[in-house]
Amino acid sequence: MPVAAVAWLALNPTENIWPHLLATVMPRYVLNTVILSAGTGALAAAMGAGSAWLVSMYDFRGRRALEWLLLLPLAVPAYIGAYALADFLDYSGPVQTALRGWFGFADSRDYWFPDIRSIEAAILVLASALYPYVYLLTRAALHEQSGSAYEVARALGTGPWGLFRRVGLPLARPAIVAGSAIAMMEAVADYGVVSYFGVQTLNTGIFTTWLERRNAGGAAQIACVILLVVVVLALWERFGRRNARYHQSARQPRPIVRQRLGGISGLAAAFACALPFALGFVLPVAVILNYALAYPQGWITPGLASAAWHTVSLGGLAAIATVVLALVMVYGVRLSGRALPRLLMPVTTVGYAAPGAVLAVGILIPLAALDHRVADGWQALTGSDPGMILTGSGAAIVFAYVVRFFAIGQGAIDGAFTRVPPSLPMAARSLGRDNAGVLRDVFLPLMRGSVGSALLLVFVDCCKELPATLLLRPFNYETLATRVHEKASLEDLGNAAPAAILVMAVGILAVALLARTNLGRRKTAARSIGPAAAL
Hints:
Layout (H helix, E strand, L loop, with lengths): L1 H10 L6 H6 L2 H32 E2 L3 H7 L8 H12 L4 H10 L15 H26 L3 H8 L4 H30 L2 H6 L4 H11 L3 H25 L18 E2 L2 H32 L9 H33 L2 H6 L11 H27 L12 H25 L3 H8 L4 H30 L2 H6 L7 H10 L3 H42 L1
Parallel strand pairs: 1-2
């Protein structure tokens, strides 16, 4: 419904400004978006896949801690990372202040320093915040593979780089591509980072066209360009691996034996893993904590507690709804055995590629029309006006979250179903279980780790979502994300710091549970459900 509403607005604009957009700003929007998306995807793939390979294949000092610390940037919204990086490296920040003090420079004309508010800085911030998607999926893929392939390659004389390039990379390619695709779509949909750094992308063009020029049809036309680009890239990626097949062995796989790294090699591996963690988590947290300690009065400002409650309640409801709907849909499609549901299932993930602001437009217009009809009918029956039931409450925000992040829940649930050996549900059916019993007694126990991971990932993303929340929230209805944005947009980082810390704290708790869920699943799988089911 939201996508259909956006398409209708694009095809029936009140004022068609598409020719003007093509002649003026559209080439710049498209070029910047392509550079931002490609750069973020490539850098996130390098950070995530490289870190996953090192912690999975080698043993070095600090590996056990880094294995889970690398997940923590998931808890930090990219826009908070942008505020922190700009504050740290800006002219008045500690880095340039120290440079002027050390070398005696009078002002910025005496030395060269990279432009902080640039597309390169935006790529660095986004990749540092989004690489955990690649890391998490790649690390899981590497752990699911047998160590025999690596042992054979080493026996044939393959070195460390050849082992990664010729064995590890091909086996983990689907996971790397999936994680990079998520990072690229997030980069296309980002508004907080690019607006703060002054990078004009298709998404900022949507905000400019809709909010400043008051032209929803023009904004919807730009949104359709984003969707078209994403669909073309997805089809191209699928066409490129049309003949590839990836299967696991039906037998118990040999575990990967990590190679011990010491000396300079061990230090280099630890530094390579620590650098993404430092950029994506340590730097933003350190800067925000510094402001929170310097301005403690920000913790007692009115509205902070209600914003925190709104964030947790809306995110929790959206996460539960998303995962339950994904579970029902994926299981139903697998049971149907028909081609049409399988062809239609990817359509449900298109909301993840659309910017939150565009989805907000597609949700706001139909729900507002429905609200008016319901209010008119109720007033005709009772004589009282109930107001805006859907758009005047958090229901519209929850709906937007479900549409926006359904791809995460659907992807996690579909992958979990795929990893269950077909022999187990077949055996359950032969023992008299119906479809509901197979789901309850076989699939859900084996998939509980993936279901928990999906819940946590969706919840964290809901807590960090900014554009849709800004546009769909009722009057005087704040979440932590909108509070951070409003304060930081006024360069008031002191009062933005408490809400930012709470956003990160919620995310850190979720990421800690995510890490514990994944660790516990690996430790208890064989003990609780047997070696065959653990596969």
